[in-house]
Specification:
Its main location: membrane. Keywords: Cell membrane, Membrane, Transmembrane, Transmembrane helix. It is found in: Cell membrane. The chain is mainly alpha-helical. The protein has two domains: 180 residues, Growth Hormone, Chain: A; 180 residues, Up-down Bundle (Growth Hormone, Chain: A). It is 71% helix and 0% strand. The chain starts with 11 loop residues before the first helix and ends in a 10-residue tail after the last helix.
């Protein structure tokens, strides 16, 4: 549904509900703390119970791939609204069901709901805003994902104390007030060639190219590669820490939680970095990644160096993600905006999937059982990614347009 009343998209009454839909996008894992209780209550082993956490991230891919086509046919607002509705409605089933198959079916639909609007939450900002405002909002949107995960994880612990394991799913009911808020405040945007939107601020209108540039394919490769490297530290950090401390029972959850806060901060400062450094924001993000990977590689027996490297790893993701998405309106025609947002999000998922395979490949090549063995290779990978983009820029200096802007 698209309101007939023009809306000022620069007002907080539009911006806040538009950002709030991203609170749920990484919330599939907030039930991790009650996995043992889920297994006992549903009479399944721990491995099966863990699938209730991981399955939504996989089923999200199915609707993620078709969401651009749906958005072109129905408009962004209707598809985003449908996704939020699925997130909220599937929360009811686990609250009352005692059958594992029924709960799993609800989690499958939950993931499909997230996939319906994952990339569209980015596309909406890309099409309603331009320039520094767009860059800032893309960064804050990324921070909102991490903030939502932190808030919902805290709420789950409270609801579980009150209602048992079923309480873990209560947090998803907040999707309904967010849906109502979004529906009545945010204007619709259409992806047809002529396009239409209910926005009022003409200075926010983007000028799209007639043809899509192949550079967007390179953006997708970049997104996948840096997620391969980034996901590696999240998977291996606890194991490396236990090895350094010689304590197989060491709990790294506090350090990992602090890492999430670094990601939140990075999302909020991305707009400033984009405004101040423009294309060079890429080098800032990749440079921090390189330094973090280098520190992990050289940590040896130093836990402090490892932790610093881990924190540095968490900072650039909310910078590089919005950096790439912020360039889509310049290089993709209007009708392809949602498609390329989806391709970059899909590239992130591909990187996460490939990451353990890349680490296993390094182990096979080196023959080392050290959990930190892949990171010198990944450090070299970051250096190559920086060098390739720099060489591309230098060889295209004659172009009137900046290489990445």
């Amino acid at each position: 549904m698209s309101s007939t009343t023009k809306k000022d998209v620069n007002s907080l009454s539009v911006i806040l509900p538009m950002l709030s839909i991203s609170l749920f996008l990484t919330s599939y894992s907030v039930v991790n703390g009650v996995i043992p209780q889920l297994g006992r209550a549903l009479n399944v082993d721990n491995t099966a119970a863990e699938l209730l956490s991981t399955t939504p991230s996989l089923t999200a891919l199915a609707t993620l791939l078709i969401s651009p086509a749906l958005a072109r046919f129905f408009g962004l607002k209707k598809v985003i609204g449908a996704g939020l509705f699925l997130v909220g409605i599937t929360a009811f089933v686990p609250m009352f069901a005692t059958n594992f198959a029924v709960v799993m079916a609800a989690r499958v639909l939950f993931g499909m709901g997230l996939g319906l609007y994952n990339s569209l939450a980015i596309t909406l900002i890309q099409m309603l805003y331009s320039g520094n405002r767009r860059a800032t909002l893309l960064g804050i949107r990324g921070a909102t994902e991490n903030l939502g995960q932190a808030i919902m994880t805290a709420l789950v612990s409270v609801f579980v104390l009150i209602a048992g394991w079923q309480g873990a799913f209560i947090v998803y009911l907040f999707a309904f007030p967010v849906l109502i808020w979004f529906w009545f405040q945010v204007p619709d945007v259409h992806l047809d060639k002529s396009g239409s939107s209910d926005m009022e601020a003409e200075e926010n209108v983007n000028i799209y190219p007639e043809q899509t540039s192949p550079i967007l394919g390179a953006f997708c490769v970049c997104a996948a590669l840096y997620m391969v490297f980034f996901n590696a530290i999240n998977v291996r950090f606890a194991e490396i820490a236990q090895k350094i401390l010689n304590d197989p029972h060491h709990d790294s959850s506090v350090i990992i939680s602090v890492g999430i806060l670094f990601a939140v901060v990075a999302g909020f400062v991305y707009g400033f970095l984009e405004k101040k450094f423009g294309d060079n924001t890429y080098y800032i993000g990749m440079g921090v990644y390189f330094l973090g990977s280098l520190l992990v590689s050289l940590a040896g027996s130093s836990y402090v160096v490892l932790v610093i490297g881990f924190f540095l790893f968490n900072f650039p993701g909310p910078i590089l993600g919005p950096f790439l998405c912020n360039r889509i309106p310049k290089y993709a025609k209007k009708s392809s905006q949602a498609f390329w947002s989806t391709m970059i999000i899909l590239s992130f998922h591909v990187g996460v999937f490939v990451s353990p395979l890349a680490m296993r490949a390094v182990t096979m090549i080196t023959g080392s059982t050290d959990p930190a063995a892949p990171f010198p290779w990944f450090t070299a990978g970051f250096a190559i990614m920086i060098a390739v983009v720099l060489a591309w820029q230098l060889t295209h200096k004659k172009n009137a347009q900046p290489a990445l802007a």
